[in-house]
Each structure stands twice: as C-alpha cells, then as structure tokens.
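Deliverable D5.2: sample structural annotation.
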Amino acid sequence: MITPIQEARVRIRTMTHEDLSAVSNIERQSYQFPWSHGVFRDCLLAGYQCIVLERNDEIAGYSILSIAAGEAHILNICVHPDFRSLGYGERLLDDLLFRARSSSVREIFLEVRPSNKHALALYRKKDFHKVADRPAYYQASHGREDANVLVKKLTTDS
C-alpha cells in the first residue's frame, strides 16, 4: 500500500537554554568557524530575540536578532544542512522582520559573507541592499574575509 507523503510540521518558537546543544550542533555542521555554545548562551542571557524553527519537533534552524535604539541587527540565521532549500531560512527571516516591525524598528541590518550566494539571494529577494563593507570581518581558512553590510528600511507594509 502506498501512503501519501506527510508534510512536515514546522513551527517557530522562542529558543530556550535546553535548545543550546542542538543549536550549537547545527552551527558546527554549518560553519568552518562556528559560534561557541557560550555565545548562544550569552545571546539568550542578553535578552536578544533568539528563535528556533522546529521540523517535526526537531530543531532544523535558528535565528538571533538584537534590537536597540530603533534599529535591529540580525546576528545569525542558520538552517541545518539536511533541511536547506526548503524555505526555512526565508521563514526565519520573515519572522525576524515581523518581530522588528512589531518593536517599531525603522531599519534592520546584517553582515553577510560576499561568498554566501544563497544568503545574498534571499536578502535581495527581501529588499535588503548593501550600504558598506567591513574589511577582514570574518575568519576564513586563508586569512580573513570581508563582510557586506546590508540594510532594509522597515515600514508597516514592507
């Protein structure tokens, strides 16, 4: 008997301390120079908007947003390698944009590696544009890599 493929249950919720091991594991699988468990813990303790995306009750991605003085800064968005190209990065980004608008933020910033073509395409799709470069911002296997600084102006309808 052929059974229909069940759609995954996906939900976004606030990250808890209990999530830190899974989040750190995804980070290590995703980046050559990952954030440490302690950095994620410190983001929670600082009161940043720390979010996880669950797929069938398993953490498949996360994002972190800092909000201050009418601006927001996306610090991290990451999806587990097994769950990329399913729209989860966009769902996390949309959630962060909603949270920023709900906090009356006027602009949202982020840094991204110029070599991260998939992320750049998503940010362009969401109307982010480049405003600056940060030279030697990221650690790289051969020295340092610059960062593109992107911004999006937020209004109630954008």
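Annotation notes: The chain has a mean pLDDT of 93. The two ends are 47 Å apart (CA to CA).
The annotation will be released with the project's public dataset once the embargo ends.
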